[in-house]
Amino acid sequence: MRGVTWCMGTMLYLCISLLGKSHSGTELLHSRQRRAPADDSKKCSYTFLMPQQKITGPICASATGPEPDKDRVTRMDISDVREILSKQRREIEMLQLVADVDGNLVNEMKLLRKESRNMNSRVTQLYMQLLHEIIRKRDNSLELAQLENRVLNVTTEMLRLASRYKELEMRFAGLAGTVNNQSVLIAALEERCLRGYGRQDLPAVPPLVQVVPESIPANNNRFTNEIQRDNNNRAFPRGSRMDTPTPDPLGIPPPPQGTLTADGPFKDCSQVRQAGHSTSGMYLLKAEGSDRLIQAWCEHKLDNGGWTVFQRRKDGSVNFFRNWENYKKGFGNIDGEHWLGLENIYNLAKQGDYKLLVELEDWVGKKVYAEYSSFHLEPESEGFRLRLGTYQGNAGDSLTSHNGKPFTTLDRDKDAFTGNCAHFHKGGWWYNACGQTNLNGVWYSGGVYRSKFQDGIFWAEYGGGYYSLKSVRMMIRPID
Ligand SMILES: [Ca+2]
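Above are the sequence and the calcium ion SMILES. Below is the predicted complex in structure-token form.
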């Protein structure tokens, strides 16, 4: 029995020595070993003193071995712990990483918040702008509507005026017809009167102009009895003064009313030009040897300027069928149709050697001229007889046949015809019997006219006796 106990003790020792020497229980064994005799080392390293136990029953070897001590730390535990530790370390690292990532996320979040705030303010700003735009557009549409209304109003007014104009035009045409009929009637009555006085032997009508021009100005197929109308078809009462100057058919802008220069008076327009004035317009003149001031139109745009205009026709706005006194003193509007007056023309032209320029314009806007190398009038005692030099120009010479003739008006017959040429030609002129030109006649619209007498503004060499010119000017300038 003793042998069995020993062997079991030896086996237990071997088991402990295998497990390691650090355990306190093992140390206890060591201390016991150290106390064991040296000669026993060959048999067993440790001597176990075990209490003797009386074995009464059979000894059974347990197949499962002794129950493990729960408090004992094994190498496996350590490795487990190490593993756990490393696992925790990894987790810590992981958490660290996650914490870092979270930190970045927080920063990003802050940035995003800031950006969001900025975006919000930007959106607010844009919204305000949008509101502003909407308001502005609404205003614009209101303004547009107002403008449309105004356009509509103006259009209505325009239509109203157009219809009124048409009405007036019709009335005018009616009146013109009446005037024409009355003219014919008056002529017939006059003829009857003359017969009544036993003067049937006298020719009632002066010979017609025999000149048949080679070419009548174009646009000549319009026969008309419409008299005293301007090219805009506006009618003016005969002899009345217009409130505003009409557009100049010869391209000269009319001056503003009352813009007479402070300079002067000048002896003529040539002197005005020499004084440095280059604008055509009204100037104050005073002929040498005369104490009378004259308002005259100076033409400075034509042929170096310096022309004194003494006669002008352009729109039929002034009645030229006047008496001697009127033709002597002058009439009309200086910035429109006018006659400067025989006395003034006489006084101006006797100051030196003057030449005459007659400018004619037809109804297609073509201008021609007739220039006479010298010009002056004889005094009133000689009936303001016309004195002309030689002709040059492209209008043809229709005035030389009037050279040396005194002036005739309705109330002062000095012409070579048995009757009064002024009566038939309805103007005042240096009539012969009666003549090749009638620049103070009746202003007809459209060119070719139809009348009992040749009373239009004609220049026989240019258009014949039945072509009334659109505009005419007569002007003088000292000979160069
Ligand atoms: Ca006569």
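Residues 1-38, 219-258 have pLDDT under 50 and may be disordered.
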